[in-house]
């Protein structure tokens, strides 16, 4: 069981960590704290991309999908984060947290439990769902989707994880949201 007081005690050490490590460590403490309340936040968005690209991508905030908005608000307020609409900021730690939704747009069954060196765990949306989300973000809103940064990150995640992907799930979901032609092209290029 982790307390607010124990989380606060880690702040001086967190400040010394590189941004990515600081985000993961802090997210793992939030996850532990929330799980004790039967709330299991899942990392989505940019930090998930950063995790899946092995710190190649850079993000500025921690996005969680989670129930328990009130509990997040209470915890982050007690940790001296400042709230601005849907985001909380801690200037001294250079951390930002957002809970954009309580609904995971993806498979609960494919959520990855990631254990950190500190012994704590994080839950991360699947790489398959992150690939699809990055493609969805650009495919209908951009004239030249393949030139968009999100296309590049989706492709990188595919290349890094291609041998571990649940291709059946990825194919089914990509067809549902009409981004399959991009993934099919990547698969065909890898088989050539």
TrEMBL record:
Q: Where is the DUF6036 domain?
A: 32-167
- What InterPro entries does this protein's entry cite? DUF6036
Descriptive protein name: DUF6036 domain-containing protein
Species in which this protein is naturally found:
Gracilibacillus boraciitolerans JCM 21714
């Amino acid at each position: 069981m982790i307390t607010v007081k124990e989380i606060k005690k880690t702040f001086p050490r967190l400040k010394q960590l590189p941004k990515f490590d600081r985000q993961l460590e802090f997210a793992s403490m939030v996850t532990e704290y929330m799980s004790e309340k039967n709330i299991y936040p899942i990392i989505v968005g940019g930090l998930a991309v950063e995790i899946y690209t092995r710190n190649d991508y850079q993000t500025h905030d921690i996005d969680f999908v989670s129930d328990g908005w009130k509990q997040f608000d209470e915890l982050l307020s007690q940790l001296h984060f400042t709230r601005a609409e849907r985001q909380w900021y801690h200037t001294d730690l250079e951390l930002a947290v957002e809970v954009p939704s309580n609904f995971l747009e993806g498979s609960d069954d494919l959520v990855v439990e990631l254990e950190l060196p500190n012994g704590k765990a994080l839950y991360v949306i699947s790489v398959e769902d992150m690939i699809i989300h990055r493609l969805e973000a650009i495919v209908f809103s951009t004239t030249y989707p393949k030139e968009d940064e999100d296309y590049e990150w989706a492709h990188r995640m595919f290349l890094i994880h291609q041998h571990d992907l649940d291709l059946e799930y990825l194919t089914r979901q990509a067809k549902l949201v009409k981004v399959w032609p991009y993934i099919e092209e990547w698969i065909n290029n890898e088989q050539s």
